[in-house]
Amino acid sequence: MSRNRSATGKVLAAIGGVLLVAALGPPALAAGGTKAQVEMWKANCKVCHQPKGQAKALSPSTLIGMQWERFFAKKFAKSHAELIHPEKNQPLGKVLTPELLDRLEKFLVDHAADSEQPMTCGK
Ligand code: HEC
User: Fold this and answer.
1) Counting atoms of ligand 1 from 1, which one is nearest the CA of 92?
2) What separation in angstroms does the CA of 20 have from each of 2, 9, 47?
3) How large is the greatest C-alpha to C-alpha distance in the chain, in angstroms?
4) Sign of torsion, CA 37 39 41 43?
5) Nearest Cα to Cα of residue 47 among 76, 9, 20
6) Which residues have CB under 8 Å from 114's CB, separation 6+?
């Protein structure tokens, strides 16, 4: 019941999450993404969208290309720009430059559920 114990639990959960992501890396590469693309996805989206993260687990193949396009065209500004990046402690609208967003969108569309190389990135 002590505060310390629950803080330790959170730290252990966080470490577990990092190990899980590390363990899930290689199959994602085999599915066709470059290492840099996968790292970019993990650092900027999966950081929240993973099992035990603050949002539901997502992978490129969770959605079809058109849905990713709609997310970047419409939803990102409304639903994400103000969220705080958990590691950089800055709003996503600031961390994710237009150029980075374009690269993320291309990666996700290239590996969407209806693409030639759908990628699960572990989930
Ligand atoms: C700061 C944490 C965080 C980061 C980083 C983040 N998201 Fe989210 N995202 C959320 C939350 C919270 C929700 C709403 C609850 C849910 O769907 O689990 C959400 C919902 C979504 C949804 C479904 C709902 C919608 O708006 O369409 C998609 C798709 C999505 N995010 C994609 C992304 C992509 C792509 C990235 C990287 C560019 C990203 N997210 C980065 C927290 C985050």
Assistant:
1) 5
2) 27, 16, 12
3) 51
4) negative
5) 20
6) 64, 65
State how far the Cα of 29 lies from the Cα of 117, in Å rounded to an integer: 11
Query: Does the pLDDT at position 9 exceed 80?
Result: no
Give the pocket of ligand 1 (CB within 6 Å).
44-45, 47-49, 54-56, 58, 71, 75, 79-80, 83, 85-86, 92, 96, 104
> Is the model more confident about 9 or about 77?
77
For residue 66, pLDDT beyond 50: yes
Tell whether pTM > 0.85.
no
**For residue range 11-54, what is the model confidence (pLDDT) as tens digits?**
656 655 555 555 555 554 545 578 899 999 999 999 999 999 99
Substitution site in 40, 59, 79 for ligand 1 pocket (most atoms within 8 Å of beta carbon): 79
Q: What is the spatial distance between Cα 60 and Cα 69, in angstroms, rounded to a whole number?
A: 12
